[in-house]
Design a protein that fits this description.
Number of strands of chain B: 9
Number of strands of chain A: 11
Largest sheet of chain B: 6 strands, mixed
Shape of chain B: globular
Largest sheet of chain A: 7 strands, mixed
Strand content of chain A: over 45%
Order of helices and strands of chain A: EEEEEEEEEEE
Oligomer: heterodimer
Helix content of chain A: under 10%
Number of helices of chain B: 0
Structural class of chain B: mainly beta
Chain lengths: ~120, ~110
């Protein structure tokens, strides 16, 4: 059964770079049918798509975050990663990684989420 | 404000039927892009509930159903149970700007 697990620092200082990794187990990140995405949820608020990546390295970002986001993939480790730079307190959120079935497909497998707080 | 509009809250008594609307525009739902629905129980990650407008993943009870018409979509929950109390989100794709995946603002379902 496919599982996704987020990992990374739970506390990041303002103006620094937030870095998270999603490890995929029980399946290959190189499956040609799937894309891999990051979603965040600020405390008490709704879901926001950050961006997605295909195993080949093609990336797609939320236009409102594009200038600060980089998503990469490491097929040898079955992982994909998120970097969000120049963070502020408004970037504090639970970050989820998820698989989606084709570019327009639903997000059918989610990680449990990891909380990242931006604070000095 | 979200690109897709959902009511902030809905409620119903056990056994009743409730619907949650998701209103978009000509650049997302109205353009023919599929709508997906997610259930988020308190303190948990979202879970896929309905995909491609009307389809249920394996394991999702048939009490949950989806529909789509024009620039809107709806999630219906019949035979409400206490365990259905959760936040529900619709999601689609928007072709404006460079194209992006968009969520509704979420609807809190309270089972009275």
């Amino acid at each position: 059964q496919l599982q996704l697990q987020e990992s990374g620092p739970g506390l990041v200082k303002p103006s620094e770079t937030l870095s998270l990794t999603c490890t995929v187990s029980g399946g290959s990140i190189s499956s040609s049918y799937y894309y891999w995405g990051w979603i965040r949820q600020p405390p008490g608020k709704g879901l926001e798509w950050i961006g997605s990546i295909y195993y080949s390295g093609s990336t797609y970002y939320n236009p409102s975050l594009k200038s600060r986001v980089t998503i990469s993939v490491d097929t040898s480790k079955n992982q994909f990663s998120l970097k969000l730079n120049s963070v502020t307190a408004t970037d504090t959120a639970v970050f989820y990684c998820a698989r989606h079935t084709s570019w327009l497909g639903a997000m059918d497998v989610w990680g449990q989420g990891t909380t990242v707080t931006v604070s000095s | 404000q979200s690109v897709l509009t959902q009511p902030p809250s809905v409620s119903g008594a056990p056994g009743q039927r409730v619907t949650i609307s998701c209103t978009g525009s000509s650049s997302n739902i109205g353009a023919g892009y599929d709508v997906h629905w997610y259930q988020q129980l308190p303190g948990a990650a979202p879970k896929l509930l309905i995909y491609d407008n009307i389809n249920r993943p394996s394991g999702v009870p048939d009490r949950f159903s989806g529909s789509k018409s024009g620039t809107s979509a709806s999630l219906a929950i019949s035979g409400l149970q206490a365990e259905d109390e959760a936040d529900y989100y619709c999601q689609s794709y928007d072709s404006s700007l460079s194209g992006w995946r968009v969520f509704g603002g979420g609807t809190k379902l309270t089972v009275l």
